[in-house]
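Database export, one record per block. Field names are fixed; values are copied verbatim from the stored entry.
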Amino acid sequence: MKTYIQFTMLAAMLVLTSTIGIADTFTHKESGQSFDGFMTQKTLGGKTRVYNTSSKEMLSVDLSEYNVTANSKGRKDVVVVVQINQSETLLSEVIAREIAKNIIDASNRGAQAIIVHLDSPGGRGDFMQIITSAIEKTTNCPVIAYISADAYGGAFSAAAVIAMACDKVFIAPAATIGTIGPMTDTGATQEDFSAYLSTYCSDTLMLQRVDAEAQRLAEKHKRPGLIARALIDKRISVVEVTNVDGGISFIEKEDRQPTQTIVRTLSEGATPSEETGIVMPVDVVSLTLNLSAKEAVAVKLADATAGGYYDILTALEIPDAKISTASTIQKTLKKYQAARRNIAETLSRVSLLEKEATKLEEQVAYIDKQLRTGTQTREVRRGADNVYRRSSRTNLPDDYYGYYYDPVINVTTTTGGVSTRSSSRGTHRRHRPEATETITTTEPTTRLVDAQQDLADVLEDLVVEYRRIVTLSRRWPGALPPEVRTTVLQKNIASIQSTLDYLYEEIDQNLLDEEMEIDEDFDDLRSPRSRRNRRY
């Protein structure tokens, strides 16, 4: 009995709050003076900011000193439409906050009502709650849900929960409200559908207790809480039963009492197979809640059907009100879509750079192994038409005589069948073109330091691309694909940066080693021993 009295008092308070929320005539309890206007969600000094239509000024009012009457006299002749009819809407925190802001701003400008137009497959629970929270705070203006049958055929999952937060719910005759919406891509595969479920009807909604939120919001507006829970929880089996007293109830199938008779089943509930232990995505749709407009009205999940905005305005007794669509949402949506495209393109570049980096890492490792374990041979070929050039890092002998002079040259001449052999000392190279030296070696054709620098360049590009993704994802929360996490991107950046630091140390050391080899070569050329061994 005590519980019933508390429930009745709570219901009365909710009705009173609702009545005060849309009040438009304010009458002072003591003086009897009144004015037409509308209240806002703003406060100043503990008082509510109320717009006085007669004097066209904003007042700070203690509502406890006034009797308020809902008659729409002080409101503007405008109904604001807030659209949630794009698949990305509930995937972006920025868009969700923009929608919430538009709802609050519309209520503060004295609109006759706010229509939340829903046509969405669902989305994330945390972004949904941003919008439902704004709707709950909007007690100063009626918020109406309209579920249409446009691109997505109705409101599903988290999108349907938004409807539960509204004061009234209208649904188009061809629309549906349920747990899982239909995929618009007719050529989708099983994997595509699994990804669709993960994106718009994810099981993580249960971890966020969105099902409990749906039930609370529904019961607040005297809608069936269990059916509202089934909008999120795929496991719930909802049946309509008749009780002994002839009343109708909605319960879970396993909770049916022997005295209750099942009238119909609204949802079977998706339970894992006893054989496989899993539920196939294709089976989920037929087992979860899916109500037509007629069924939604019959079970009181929706208040009435409506063919469009005019039907809603007529039902609200404001048929001549002007329709104003919140335009900033579409602008924000376009920016978000552009951010998603940029992230997708950047992720593609990252994938290519990662593959290139892997190849270069293997190349650097191979070259380093060759330099550590490989062997080499030298073959010298002289020719007067070429210019000498070192083509390897092979150390030269201490005696540099061969660098400045040719060795003894044996020449065999054959004339009329008679061979003549003669010997001559090579001339100083200052008196003829320099000869060439050809090196045949097992050393790699690419210098280690060059391969390392190529790898460093690719890793630097990777860091830039990763940081671009992180920046965009922070600016547009929800724009990242579900399987990509910002924390993973940050770890990748840190890992690459660590590799770069080590790589640059290796490059600097290798360059220093090469410079030292060159310096040693020139020092040997100028040594006294080398000068003593010269022959003219």
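Remark 1: The CA atoms of residues 125 and 210 lie 6 Å apart.
Remark 2: The chain has five domains: 1-74, 76-234+270-326, 236-269, 340-374+446-532, 376-442.
End of record.
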